[in-house]
Amino acid sequence: MTKISFSDNNLVIEIEGVDKILSLKSHIEIPITHVLSVSQTTDEAKKWLGLKGIRKIVGSNIPGLISEGTFYDQGKVFLDIHKPENTISIKLKDEKYREIIIEVENPEENILSIQDFIKNNSN
Q1: Alpha carbon 33 to its chain's center
Q2: Which helix (H) or strand (E) holds 16?
Q3: Residues pairing with 81 in the sheet
Q4: pLDDT at residue 85 in the model
Q5: Are 73 and 54 within 8 A, CB to CB?
Q6: What confidence tens digit (pLDDT) does each residue in 72-84 have?
Q7: Is the alpha carbon torsion for 73, 77, 83, 85 positive or negative?
Q8: Is 58 helix (H, G, I), strand (E, B) or coil?
Q9: What's the total number of domains in the chain?
Q10: pLDDT score recorded for residue 23
Q11: Residue 123, pLDDT score
Q12: Cα(19)–Cα(23) distance, rounded to whole angstroms?
């Protein structure tokens, strides 16, 4: 599970609990101007969660249970997925990852929070 927060003009993603160990990452910080879009992504998360033999760079993957860490599909993707119905997708530009797909406690609330932050901090 992850938590979303904001610092200065950055989106901050905190990876919590055992997910830090499985993904080999504790947080990701991204300038808000590098966020292209944010949306709920249940179907795409199910795809990532169910894949066998996906190109894992670093992290953990147990098909059908968890996908945690950095994977490759037409660019690097960071995943923190247990329950696909609670995931959001953050598409990026000019970053290490082309996309971040993470599980959050309340997807709709987090999406609105990020969208509001983008609106209030775009130049």
Answers
A1: 16
A2: none
A3: 67
A4: 95
A5: yes
A6: 988 999 999 999 9
A7: negative
A8: strand
A9: 1
A10: 85
A11: 58
A12: 6
Structure-token match 């901090």, residue found: 121
Task: Say whether 99 sits in a helix, a strand or coil.
Answer: strand
Domain boundaries, position 89: 2-121
CB 26 within 8 A of CB 14: yes
Token duo for residue 3: 């938590």
Band (pLDDT 50/70/90 cuts) for residue 11 is: very high
Q: What is the pLDDT of residue 20?
A: 86
- How far is CA 13 from its chain centroid? 8
For residue 28, list its beta bridge partners.
13
104 contacts: CB under 8 Å, gap ≥ 6: 1, 2, 3, 4, 86, 87, 88, 110
The one-letter code for the residue type at 64 is G
Tokens standing for residue 14? 């905190």
